[in-house]
Specification:
The protein is mainly α and about 190 residues long. Helices cover about 70% and strands about 0% of the residues.
Length: about 190
């Protein structure tokens, strides 16, 4: 059984990556924050008594299901209601609390300003390329290479076969490499 502090540590450690995952999937900052918050609450409420080593897989499954639910609800709303967004005035965006975190934490502590700028630009290109991937390829790629899940764990989270995970990861890797090479980024 995970202790309260283990659950808190896990959630604190996964928060930023989960937000980015949700943001890549739904492309809406507020919806991504809601999805991550709801996923964290579900994990704590329903699975907080599970062993600590099971939390990463459980959380990823909850997060992916929440993303799918978001799309289902959006499709239903779109079918039933007429969009009135053109009639509403756009509100100014509030600062995102996750984006206000120090960028320096992501960069090498001893990097020169030129190296830090180059690294930040490369990360932006990678994020842009990730957003352009098809949803299943992006999901497989992020779970495998960002979250560090193995093929079996990724297949369990995605609800597909291990062969599908390998195919999605391979296609995603080739697509990312091609997109980055087109922008002049080489390994």
């Amino acid at each position: 059984m995970a202790s309260r502090s283990e659950l808190s540590s896990f959630l604190a450690g996964v928060e930023r990556r989960a937000y980015k995952q949700a943001l890549y999937a739904v492309r809406d900052e507020e919806a991504a924050l809601d999805i991550v918050q709801d996923s964290m609450m579900r994990l704590a409420e329903k699975y907080g008594n599970q062993p600590a080593e099971e939390l990463p897989l459980l959380f990823q499954r909850i997060l992916q299901n929440a993303i799918r639910d978001y799309y289902r609800r959006a499709r239903t709303r779109q079918e039933r209601f007429t969009s009135l967004s053109a009639l509403e005035a756009e509100e100014e965006e509030a600062d995102d609390p996750l984006e206000t975190l120090a960028v320096a934490a992501d960069l090498h502590a001893f990097a020169t300003p030129h190296e830090a700028l180059a690294q930040a630009q490369t990360l932006n290109l990678i994020e842009e390329a990730l957003q352009n991937l098809p949803p299943r390829q992006r999901e497989a790629f992020l779970l495998r290479y960002w979250e560090g899940l193995d093929i079996a764990e990724t297949a369990a989270v995605m609800g597909c076969s291990e062969g599908s995970v390998k195919t999605h990861c391979s296609r995603a890797t080739h697509a990312l490499a091609a997109a980055l090479a087109a922008k002049g980024v080489r390994p």
